[in-house]
Fold this sequence. Notes:
The protein has helices at about 1-25, 55-65, 75-85, 115-120, 195-200, 200-215, 250-270, 310, 340-345, 360-365, 445-460, and strands at about 30-35, 65, 70, 125-130, 150, 180-185, 185-190, 220-225, 275-280, 315-320, 330, 335, 375-380, 385-390, 395, 400-405, 420-425, 425-430. It is of the alpha/beta class and about 475 residues long.
Amino acid sequence: MKLKIAWCLWCLFAVNSGIFAQNKISGRPNVIIINMDDMGYGDTEPYGMTGIPTPNFNKAAKEGMRFTHFNVAQAVCSPSRAALLTGCYPNRLGLHNALMPWSEIALNPAEETIPSLLKQSGYVTGMLGKWHLGSRPPFLPVHFGFDSFYGIPYSHDIWPVDYDGSPAKPGSPQSKYPPLPIYDGDKIVGYNLTLDDQAKLTGTFTSKAVEFIKANQAKPFFLYLAQPMPHVPLATSARFKGKSEVGLFGDVIMELDWSLGEIMRTLEKYRLTNNTLLIITSDNGPWLRFGDNAGSSGGLREGKGTAWDGGTRVPCIIRWPGRVEAGGVNSHLLTNMDLLPTIMHITKSPMPKNKIDGLDFADMLLGKSDIDVRKVFYYYYDVNSLKAVRYKNWKLVLPHTSQTYAALHGKDGAPGPAPSVNVKTALYDLAHDPGETYDVQILHPDIVQKIMSFVQEARTDLGDDLTHNEGKNRRQPGKPISDK
């Protein structure tokens, strides 16, 4: 009997100790960022999708806040991810375009990142999934503040396989790529060689995320889960094949929804839900040239690879029960650069020493203020071309060349054309015209003049290739040694 009592008391002590450990650090919550790849603004039910059930996205939106004007710094993989992790416009860091295995630039290890800053506050940091900011040491995640990394160095279409899953034909665009490596830390531990391998990605990264949370439940932790899907080539496990009403793309979204559910259930299992800031977003809009293998911009104009809102405006849901309004909807202009200073505020962690472009919206997020923290956003693309500027609900589009998806889209995984077009100066009122259809510059010359003052500020600070401005405040990227 004494042994039974002692055992019960020990179990009670262990449980209470775990709860105490979490309560003790409640001022510094765990932070999880789930960053989807090419998930469009309209790809889940909270943002208008039909035909694809997303109960876990729905649950996150019901228990958290849904943002409707959340933009990424640029509508392409590498620059967007750099902006999220550093709080900077990527062109400030010297980064542009999707980095290739042989690229001569990478994120500079001297840049401070969300994980490197959180480590200074005692956080355990881990990354899973797609990196795409440098493809070999010393430009992999463990050199930027992550204690651990398991994943792929860049997009999973950068491999010598054609869109139908067959080996790339000699001379085809895919044939120039090396096999797609899988890294554990700095070490290659395998390769993705087939679509069957790709079908395991979502499940593998999800199970490893669950393991990370379990292993670090008694410590403050930061987990960055960068899911490679729904970027093409699409692939899903047998469990989800044929489950949606809209084909393979819908099946992939359903598996990502399941993955989100696994993360939230794990937090509940270990009593971490109320002490975890959960952020769910995407790196850019849908790659529309892939047609039925691409998602939806939710009625916004164009998609990935453009300076239109279909490329930069993405879903964002933030949940922190008891702190962030459940079921809240936030229509303020925000960007993925703003996550870093907001997280630093909430976790009482240091800010970067160098200049950043992100703005702290913690008070707005926590219901302490309703003041706009961001009124201006620069739409850069290509190497360093300023293509538009937003001011509050107004967007002034500057003359530039852009690809367009207003042509026949691809089907069954094959891409359609994306021709270039010349874009003229135009002013759009996004409050009345979210599709950027009606040019109202003649009606509002005062707004055009106001925004042009921000255009000049951007060109002075960051430069603009379209007007041959270098910019005064750009930093150097990392410089890998190419072995091409």
